[in-house]
User: Fold this.
Amino acid sequence: MDCFDGIKNLDNNSVALVITSPPYVEQRKKYYNSIPEIDYPMWTVSWMRLLKNKLKENASVCINIRPHIKNGQISNYVAKTVDVLREDGWIECEELIWYKPDSPPMGSIKRPRRAWESIKWFSLTNKPFCNPKANGSISNRIGFEQSKFEESNNGYVHRGQNQAKSGIARCTDVIVCGTSKVEKGYNHPAMFPPEVPEYLIKMLSKEEDLILDPFIGSGTTGRVAEKLNRKWIGFEINEEYMIKD
Ligand SMILES: C[S@@+](CC[C@H](N)C(=O)[O-])C[C@H]1O[C@@H](n2cnc3c(N)ncnc32)[C@H](O)[C@@H]1O
Assistant:
C-alpha cells in the first residue's frame, strides 16, 4: 500500500528504526512513480512528518539517497531536502557513505566514476540509540589518542600517545559493499544489497525492535531485519514488487 496511508495506521511510539531508499527524482520513471525535483523536499517532509509520533524516543531514520548530475551540475534537491527536514525539527545526526567498489562504468567519461551514495541519518533527539561496536572489528588501537604536542625551544615536539589497548573498535561511517551483492531472484530494478540495511540495523537497533521501511521495494530491509531477530513492517505501492511467501 501507499506508505502515506500505511504509516498512519502504525501504533504510536512503536518504531525503533526506519531504513529506506525512497524513489529518487525523475529516475527509474519507467519502473515506478518518481517525484518531480521541485516537489521533492516537501514530499519528503510530509512522509517524515507522519513518522514523528510513530517513532520511539531514541529512534533513527536512515535515508539512502543520491543526487543526479543535471547540465553538468549536481542537482541540489538533496541539499534542499535536508534543509527543510532540519527546519521541520529533524536532527541530522550524520551522513554515512555507502561505497560501491564495483560500481558500473556509467555516466560522463569526463568525470571520475561515481562509486558512492549517501545515507542521511536523522533523529528527533540528539542522543539516538547507537551501538557503533555492533559492526566493529578487532583493533589494537583502542583508546588511542591523537598525538600530543608540546612547545619547546625548537617549536612543537611529539609527546607520544596514551597506552592503546586491544578490543572491538567502533565501526566507521563508510559501508563498503558492491552492488553485485544485491539478492538474486527478485523482480525489482533498484534494490540495495542486504549489507546496507544490515550495517544500519545492527548499529541503530536492538533485537525485538520494530524496523520500518516505507518504500520497501523487493523487501530487502524486511529480510535482513528478520535474520537479525527484529520485527519489521514495509510498505510498497506497486503490487508487482510485493513480497510473496
Ligand atoms: C528505490 S526502491 C526501494 C528498493 C528497496 N530498497 C529494495 O532493496 O528492494 C523505492 C520503492 O518505493 C516504492 N514507492 C514509491 N512511492 C511509494 C509510496 N508512496 N508508498 C510505498 N511505496 C512507494 C516504489 O514502487 C519502489 O519500489
